[in-house]
Specification:
With 71 residues, the protein is an alpha+beta fold. It is built from two helices and two strands, in the order H-E-E-H. The chain has two domains: 40 residues, no CATH class; 31 residues.
Length: 71
């Protein structure tokens, strides 16, 4: 996470409009292609691997329980 990414401007907009401490923006097949941007204090960035693991686990759980569909 070195320097601004292709979606950094949108990440800034979301962070400012939501008055959030941090934002992780992941874009799949957007108008600028695939990309991500992270804006957060170091303490949050250092915790990102665990946060993302927890999130992945919750997504897998929702899929297994049929809570996520293609509709």
């Amino acid at each position: 996470m070195d320097g601004p990414g292709k979606y950094d401007d949108l990440c800034t907009k979301v962070r400012e409009e939501t008055k959030a401490t941090g934002v992780i923006l992941v874009v799949m097949d957007g108008n600028r292609g695939y990309g991500f941007s992270v804006q957060a204090p170091l303490v949050i960035v250092l915790g990102l691997p665990q946060i993302l693991r927890d999130l992945a686990g919750k997504i897998e759980e929702d899929i297994a329980k049929g809570r996520i569909s293609d509709s």
